[in-house]
UniProtKB/TrEMBL annotation:
InterPro entries: Epimerase_deHydtase, NAD(P)-bd_dom_sf, NAD(P)_epim/dehydratase. The lineage of its organism: Bacteria, Pseudomonadati, Bacteroidota, Cytophagia, Cytophagales. It holds the Pfam family Epimerase. This is NAD-dependent epimerase/dehydratase family protein. Belongs to the NAD(P)-dependent epimerase/dehydratase family. Residues 4-240 form the NAD-dependent epimerase/dehydratase domain.
Length: 315
């Protein structure tokens, strides 16, 4: 029987992924953990443990005592916040991954999931349909940590047989929790302002194209790669993953076609340089052919889905 530990469960991805894992494996099989004690209130359906991922002794004890077989390691400092606290971002992002890979090796875990990001790419990467294998010279600490993390994942797979699987997420857009500290977060914030009847001030330029994905698709991709037979997961650094690409102006227009009064202004800040260094769109054909990845949501379907569901959601 699987016993799954989700680290960083209180975050934007973790809140929804934990619920999906409980649906698949049963509530008893999942332990949600987060640094923030306050996240406990999100998990009335499964066990919650307050956990600092940097506390390796506690992490080891939890894995050993609970008979953990899989870890989903989602805790990270994202791109924008990472630029404010570069050394902290490096320490947290790298040391936590290394601890978990070591624990996976020592305790022979069945599987580990660790997310990478489009942040591994940089200004010298081909901008459109960015290939799986190409130049990567990330300009953010977050991107550097994800790039190095990808190498460590491949290393642990090849040297020690650790079954670690990873996806390079585009910007993730969900309505069930707020994102924290990313460059793509404008695409979540905009919906909250639109529904509050306020003008949205966008921190990116109107024509900044970025790869994006609706959370339902991100959850599906994560479960798909983790449920795929081992031999079909051929890339052990991290897979390119795509669904849609749009600019702030295009997202604004999609929302405005549903809420005609909505208005926007543009005031690019330091996050513009980060966005400019990332791809406009990504080629995810390896994920599609290796383990059958297929997205469902485009910008229209996503916008309708969020505008229908967000007003009824209690934070
Ligand atoms: C960020 O903007 O930092 C993240 C990401 C693309 O990984 N959403």
């Amino acid at each position: 029987m699987e016993k799954i530990l989700v680290i960083g469960a209180g975050g934007q991805l973790g809140s929804e992924l934990t619920a999906a894992l409980c649906d698949q494996f049963g509530n008893e099989a999942v332990i949600a953990s987060d640094l923030h004690e306050g996240s406990a209130s999100k998990f009335d359906y499964c066990r919650f443990e307050q956990l600092d991922v940097m506390d390796i002794d506690r992490l080891k004890a939890l894995v050993k005592n609970e008979g953990i077989t899989q870890i989903y390691h989602l805790a990270a400092v994202l791109s924008a916040v990472g630029e404010k606290k570069p050394l902290f971002a490096w320490q947290l992002n790298m040391n936590s991954l290394l601890s978990i890979l070591e624990i996976a090796r020592e305790y022979k875990l069945d599987k580990v999931y660790w997310p990478s990001s489009i942040a591994v790419f940089g200004p010298n990467t081909p901008k459109t349909n960015t290939p799986q294998f190409c130049v990567k010279e990330p300009i953010t600490v977050y991107g550097i940590s994800k790039q190095a993390g990808e190498r460590w994942c491949q290393y642990y797979f090849e040297k020690y047989g650790v079954d670690v699987r990873s996806l390079r997420y585009p910007g993730l857009i969900g309505y069930k929790s707020l994102p924290g500290g990313g460059t793509t977060d404008y695409a979540v914030d905009i919906f909250h302002k639109a529904l509050a009847g306020e003008t949205f001030e966008c921190f990116l330029d109107e024509n900044s194209y970025l790869p994006m994905m609706y959370m339902a698709d991100a959850i599906k991709a994560t479960l798909d790669i983790m449920n795929a037979p081992k031999e079909r997961v051929k890339i052990r650094s991290s897979y390119n993953l795509a669904a849609m690409s749009f600019s702030p102006k295009e997202l604004y227009e999609a929302i405005k076609s549903e809420l005609s009064e909505f208005s926007i202004s543009y005031k690019p800040d330091f996050r513009q340089e980060i966005a400019d260094s990332w791809p406009d769109s990504v080629d995810d054909s390896h994920a599609r052919s290796d383990w059958g990845w297929k997205h469902q949501f485009g910008i229209k379907e996503m916008t309708r889905n969020i505008l229908v569901n967000l007003p009824n959601f209690q934070f």
